[in-house]
Protein: DUF1214 domain-containing protein
Amino acid sequence: MTGSLEMTKVLQDAIAEAEKLIEAAPFITTEQDLLEGYDYLSGRIRMAMQMAFDYDLDRPVFINPTHQFSRQGLDNPDAIYFNAYLKEGVEYVVRGRRGTAADLSFQVMGGTYSADSAAASMMAFDDRELEKDADGNFEFRYVAEPGAKTLIVREVFNDWDTEERGTLWIERPDTVGQPAAPLSERTLAKKYEVAARSLVGSIHTWFAFPHFFQYKEPANVPTAPQSTPGGLESQRSSIGHYDLAEDQALVITVPECTDCSYQAIQIGSDWYASTDYETHQTSLTKAQAQVDPDGKMRFVISETPPGGTPIANWLETTGHRTGALMLRWQRLERDLGPEDGPVAEVVPLADVPSRVPHFTPLTTEEYAARIAARQRSVARRMIS
Structure:
């Protein structure tokens, strides 16, 4: 009988390898960067264990691998992600009740994201294509086609304060009601091996991924709206990255889009992950942002508040001089052109009050209330 040390050694070795990868990240310049790397590593370990040990092709479930304690792939602060593994040729039934989130979408992916390429989108649609009863209940069936590996569901919230989650589950009609096979040494060993591969692979993947897209663009110049790589038909995004001195701010002006249910902006760290969106304002949706009388939203990205006091559309860089940047539009009713996208300008931080129209400072108490509302909304909405 194999001892536990031998059973878990493959994972122990993978954690040691992953730790070395984190420590050698080329963008680490401060002790805080390294500490964030170790925190990022904890989320990668958590994700690897969850995906390996919750995974059962005979009894599929929706797994929530990405959340505030496990950040990856410039995760969207406004989204709850669900993943279910698929087996080719098998029929699946997905049932649920539509909540009031701005968008509920489904996507079948072939393969996985890797350090060499993005996963291929094989099918993508949102709940507008589903029949729902008066209470929002729905059901659909899907036979996994050749190459189909994962079903991803995204529930995306535009108004954190008012929109509510729905319910969702998946099953195989041919195996439901059957007991699970008893544990075996071989099964457990395989799960530890899968976790080990997933851990190291995910770190390599998300180190490489932004260089396919974000870092091909010049700093501080987000792209025009475009189809999101591997994304949905009714989704567009603008990608980029920022590089700012302590006395600089990046001002991003973008029209409010009334032809979509969801529009948002977020910044992320060089770990290609969201930064703290609970106790800092690092993302805003159009429902949360100030829209000026001319129909445009003007966001100010900087380390310290412009003018010395926070403003409604300030995005905090939380100690990161560089990082990722993304704007999203989802559940679009029309395509977008360059005129719908962002215009960005780097300005001296001291000049922001005079350069940004409708500059309206908030009091310390008003900004604290905004942060408190974010914390409460995340606590109510998120799962981990």
Remarks:
- The mean pLDDT is 94.
- The chain is about 25% helix and 25% strand.
